[in-house]
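re: the backbone from monday

yeah here it is again, tokenized this time
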């Protein structure tokens, strides 16, 4: 048991006469006091006395019986923290509305062909090459969804930019300043220090770390505090420093209230609905039965036809045209059928027809795949059929 008596001055008892032994004088008492002070007071904190420490310990117990019991709430016996149920980044994003703002985040839409920038993206850099990869293609690389985007650098660094808010739109969204734009993409690359992403707000960039070059898919995040001088909001894929290729997938960007990195992709909401074109009266061969100008690209998933009175003697033939100009023209566009040969038809004596697999709309500019080529302007319904009444074509569109 520890004791302070060992620090007291040497002393001896008297022999009973009261005339010998250690004299108890001021010097002896001071020496005992010094020994106690040395054991109970700190030279570093000379004003803190034992009573203060006792009071602090009792206060530190809180409502528990001891300080040890209080510490046991959050710490293991070895001092490490217990695994407490903290909210995950995914849960935080859900709580504050972390919606992916990147349209065509899965690189599904390529209306200008497999060797042009996917819908909504702008390719930059001298000698830059872009290609669609994924299901049914020569390069089947993909991560999120059926397709991905391959960027190949030549002599100069290249970028693929997706505008989230252009300058005109940002003027109405300046409340986003001082919030965080949390972005990220899945990236595949076989060369280190070549592929990365960036978030740009018009005032500056926030760059991610580079892909390690390990030849596998890695999630690469970057989060930028939106500057008070911000004018736009973009997410950018980059290939730099070497003449190599990298593949990107699952582009994501969400507005969050804290400096968080996205832990993985956040899927962008997709709209799916039906366009209804009703034609009354006697059916005759004609063009421009109905027209729809979408605000963004989409895919015609299937076409359904219905007539009140079944045709006799011949089928009802209905075509669906789309804008094939590259880039898409808004005035006097070139319209072409979305079907290679057979159009959606209602056979004689029938009143309904639906094409979804057998007559999948074919590619607009490349024959490699009918899915993902997209709808740039349209659809425009055209019909050529015998005289029947109440022809009702529908086009189911995903955008």
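seq for it, each position gets an aa:
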């Amino acid at each position: 048991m520890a004791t302070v008596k060992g620090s007291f001055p040497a002393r001896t008892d008297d022999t009973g006469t009261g005339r010998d032994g250690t004299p108890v004088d001021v010097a002896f008492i001071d020496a005992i006091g010094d020994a106690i002070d040395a054991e109970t007071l700190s030279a570093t904190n000379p004003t803190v006395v034992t009573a203060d420490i006792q009071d602090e310990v009792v206060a530190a117990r809180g409502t528990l019986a001891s300080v040890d019991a209080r510490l046991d709430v959050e710490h293991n016996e070895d001092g490490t923290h217990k695994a407490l149920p903290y909210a995950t980044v995914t849960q935080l994003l859900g709580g504050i509305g972390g919606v992916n703002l990147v349209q065509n985040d899965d690189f599904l839409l390529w209306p200008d062909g497999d060797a042009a920038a996917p819908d909504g993206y702008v390719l930059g850099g001298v000698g830059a090459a872009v290609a669609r990869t994924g299901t049914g293609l020569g390069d089947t690389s993909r991560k999120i969804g059926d397709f991905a985007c391959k960027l190949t650098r030549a002599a100069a660094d290249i970028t693929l930019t997706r505008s989230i808010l252009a300058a005109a739109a940002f003027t109405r969204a300046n409340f986003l300043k001082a919030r965080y734009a949390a972005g990220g993409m899945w990236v595949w690359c076989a060369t280190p220090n070549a592929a990365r992403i960036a978030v740009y707000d018009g005032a500056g960039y926030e760059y991610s770390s580079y892909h390690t070059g390990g030849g596998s898919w890695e999630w690469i995040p970057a989060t930028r505090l939106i500057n008070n001088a911000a004018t736009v909001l973009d997410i950018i894929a980059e290939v730099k420093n070497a003449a190599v290729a990298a593949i990107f997938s699952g582009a994501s960007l969400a507005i969050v209230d804290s400096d968080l990195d996205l832990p993985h992709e956040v899927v962008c909401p997709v709209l799916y609905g039906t366009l209804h074109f009703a034609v009354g009266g006697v059916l005759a061969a004609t063009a421009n039965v109905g027209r729809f100008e979408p605000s963004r690209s989409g895919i015609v998933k299937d076409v359904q036809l219905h007539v009140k009175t079944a045709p006799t003697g011949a089928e009802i033939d209905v075509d669906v045209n789309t804008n094939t100009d590259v880039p898409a023209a808004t005035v006097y566009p070139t319209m072409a059928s979305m079907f290679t040969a057979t159009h959606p038809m209602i056979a004689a004596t029938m009143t309904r027809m639906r094409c979804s697999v057998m007559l999948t709309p074919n590619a607009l500019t490349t024959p490699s795949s009918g899915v993902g080529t997209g709808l740039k302007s349209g659809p425009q319904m055209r019909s050529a059929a015998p005289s029947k009444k109440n022809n009702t074509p529908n086009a189911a569109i995903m955008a």
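The CA atoms of residues 219 and 256 lie 19 Å apart. The radius of gyration is 37 Å.
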